[in-house]
# Entry
Amino acid sequence: MPLFSASLATRLPLAFWVQSRSNNFTRNYAGNSFFLFFDSKRSLGLTKPINFSLSKCNQTRVCSPMEGQMVVTAPETEEYSKELEVAVRAVQMACLLCQRVQENLITKTNGQVHSKDDNSPVTIADWSVQATVSWVLAESFGSENIAIVAEEDVQALLKANAAGLLEAVVNTVNNCLVEAPQFGFKTPLMSLGTLDVLEAISRCNSTGGPVGRFWVLDPVDGTLGFVRGDQYAIALALIKDGEVVLGVLGCPNYPMRKEWLSYHNRYHRIISKLSPPMSESWERGCVFYARRGSGKAWMQPIHHGEENLLWPNNARQIQVSSIDDPALATFCEPVEKANSSHSFTAGLAHSVGLRNQPLRVYSMVKYAAIGRGHAEVFMKFARAGYKEKIWDHAAGVVIIQEAGGVVTDAGGHPLDFSKGEAAGRVFSSLCSTASQIKMSGYFENGDRDQVLLVAQIAWNIWKSRNNFVFNKTKVNPQHTITSFLHAEMECLKAFELARVQMDNLANQEDLSTWRAPNKGRFKANCDAAIPASELIRSIAAIVLRNWKGKIVDDLAKSVHVGTSIGGELHAIRAACEMLICLGLEEVEVESDSQQAIHLTSLSLATRPDPSGSTQAQPKPSKHKAQNQNQNSHQGSGGGGGNDNGVGGFWGPGGGFNIPGMGSGWGPGVGGGYGAGYGGPYKGYSKGGVVRPSMVCKDKGPCYKKKLTCPAKCFTSYSHSGKNYGSGGGGGGCTMDCQKCLAYC
Ligand SMILES: Nc1ncnc2c1ncn2[C@@H]1O[C@H](COP(=O)(O)O)[C@@H](OP(=O)(O)O)[C@H]1O
Ligand SMILES: [Mg+2]
# Structure
């Protein structure tokens, strides 16, 4: 039974916090991603917070009306200052429009929410905001100078039965534009007609791309939250040569108090009535914004349109949270399970030590919450096949970055807003077979890239957690990202190598991918997991595949163990038990612990001669189940059986004698294995003799040569009596990798 070590445990020692990979953005796509944000300057568990330094910022400081924060006035000479001001004013106006439509939606009856072709909801607010913002941008910069990528188009409005809808949109736009002067824009000389509105919506037909300048607009992000009277956002960003240079997020329902983010807005509204806000202007709603490279992000209160909006409207600077303990951190995720796997993020959160309940919020308000310091992490894991849209991220990304945070895809790469066409990126090869199995369930349609990626991420997180738990190593996000990228590069290289050299694959020791055993053989991959809280209990998991890679069996069992190596050894033992139960002879056992493999091989190679230590009577194994007959239970070909149907293993022979294994091990491994399962009530028997083999690993004449113990070196026996059964077997041989010989 050769024991291979997929040595990833040692190759990827890891610690980290970030993940997935930007799939390239298409015109509108951002790739399947999940995102973690944390303060890059105050990385978790590492460095001290960096305080805001007034001397560096060259701004006017004013006392904040709330929370002791500073109010500053941004100088207007900076690049994109006009664009920023126009964008913020436009979003402010759009917020007012949305607030009015949302009030109507909540108080009035049905018929106002429509379905798009993909069944996602859309309301008059979506089209009205798109038309209004498009019109304002065209008025401010000249329609010939602007390109806009936006979510909505006019198809639904042009349908024969959509006249009422179109009329409602035109009215909503005009009602909003009447108030344009309060927001610093001119009201159109004449009300916009149907064609004007359709043209404004259609103007947003840019395809984006890697060069040039274009605006990106999500008129109502989180439409589901919007129609439910909850959180939503208006997101406007400016992209230049693939980089987001400006981002503005209008969040009309952003609550004054952090705690209220957790509640649905309806509840928030009730609470607000019970306890009046400290300042009317901050009761609800903020506009967040940032300009790339400024190192600052801002928020200003929603402008209600009663008087003129004075730029920058009491803006105050925001920064990401200074919490550096994962246990105190809060992570955000979409409300809708369909948009991100809650179970997966829960697992990840647990792995990295996030203990708080997730904050589930609709829309890009999650980005706002991170930038505002009301939450620390945002994870989104879209289902396989879904492509993230650039309008769902662009504005949020720059705000987070300028507020001191980091946004990456699940591979730790920056999001890529430059791709004009969908260009799927090859994900890395898998780093852990066991992880692949565990994770594959999270993806309903089994997107292989996703699965591989997630497995790799999970592997890294797991190693990070182990380092933290066992070595007391602090988690350093920056280091984690780097290590993850290195690991990924390594895996990619290994994957490429394996692909190119497919013909020679069987002869190569590629440790990063699962390798099929020779035809007709089986391979069991085993691994152990040790809960930090309970060092005496661990889980051993085994996956058994045939030579075609098909999973034929799996097993997870709880074992008592004192150390991680003990856990790994138990996992190997459990794998052997399983194989014996199945009566498989041509098998390989693979572990990711080189140490466990080494110890097991050592034990195999040094076991004493079994001939003097066994009572075995030479007899061919019988592998017949006996579990129905209560009076003649018999185990054969293995160790002793008991009432529970479990038996002894490892056959007679020398003991393992490995520290950390604790009690409970059989008398030793002699190289031959049989299983006996007997007992008065539940026993059964199944067994066999599995001849050990090994592949010589030392360079020399026998390098990579496989040695298998001769059959004559093994014996097995069985014994039956009233109400019990027992069995045993053993034997072994000496493997000589100098002479390429295995002998008894
Ligand atoms: N199956 C899916 N997986 C991931 N995201 C999805 C999705 N379907 C829609 N979305 C995006 O998720 C956004 C809502 O974000 P959240 O789930 O965080 O509230 C939607 O924005 P719109 O509401 O603007 O269409 C849409 O772009
Ligand atoms: Mg959206």
The pocket of adenosine-3'-5'-diphosphate (ligand 1) is lined by residues 120, 151, 218, 221-223, 225, 334, 336, 338-339, 362-363, 382-383, 386, 389, 392 (CB under 6 Å). The CA atoms of residues 97 and 176 lie 6 Å apart.
